[in-house]
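Design a sequence for this backbone.
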């Protein structure tokens, strides 16, 4: 299948940002004077929007403060505790050279932070645009729909590439194909339960599907 519009998740798909995300959650709970969840529990926070996680783990009323504390840490330090997965830069470079393809980032991460991270990691030039969470659009489906609408993307030839069930659910919600990568934050069990259209276990397999 030929894809003309490719929408990439960021964390756990293109970059391993687990160290910075983990430290951000630890710092947030500590600053709020709350018990710090286990490492295993924090791992489950990687993928969903921050707003959703903190509403569930703290409270509806305390979520906004927690989000701000997390972002304060992440913007000052956490975003630099990340690196690209092996082979990803080469895949992005080759895709960006194809005049028949448009590639984007669609992440639940705060949009200004996502842009800073891409610049820091040297991958901004490969993307036609970068979309992230805003106060009005923070669920993956909302971010995807904004990107699809603004770029007049043909849904029949569009795909979301992601590592968690939230990416797969978001893609199905807006009516595009879904491609699951198995090296990220989501467990393979929960990821494959969403019946993605394609699965890649390596960056080479990712390239073979998208080229």
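Sequence:
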């Amino acid at each position: 299948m030929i894809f003309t519009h490719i929408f990439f998740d960021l964390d756990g798909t293109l970059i391993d940002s687990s160290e910075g995300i983990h430290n951000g959650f630890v710092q947030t709970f500590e600053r709020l004077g709350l018990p710090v969840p286990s490492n295993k529990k924090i791992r489950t926070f990687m993928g969903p929007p921050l707003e959703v996680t903190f509403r569930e783990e703290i409270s509806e009323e305390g979520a906004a403060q927690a989000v701000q504390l997390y972002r304060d840490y992440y913007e000052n330090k956490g975003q630099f505790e990340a690196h690209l997965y092996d082979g990803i830069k080469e895949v992005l470079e080759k895709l960006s050279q194809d005049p028949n393809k448009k590639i984007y980032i669609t992440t639940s991460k705060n949009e200004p932070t996502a842009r800073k991270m891409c610049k820091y990691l040297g991958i901004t030039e490969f993307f036609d645009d970068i979309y992230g969470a805003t106060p009005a659009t923070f669920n993956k489906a909302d971010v995807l729909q904004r990107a699809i609408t603004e770029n007049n993307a043909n849904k029949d030839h569009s795909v979301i590439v992601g590592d968690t069930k939230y990416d797969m659910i978001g893609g199905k919600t807006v009516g595009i194909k879904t491609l699951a990568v198995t090296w990220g934050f989501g467990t393979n069990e929960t990821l494959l339960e969403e019946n993605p259209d394609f699965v890649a276990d390596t960056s080479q397999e990712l390239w073979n599907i998208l080229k």
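Residues 141 and 173 are 6 Å apart (CA to CA).
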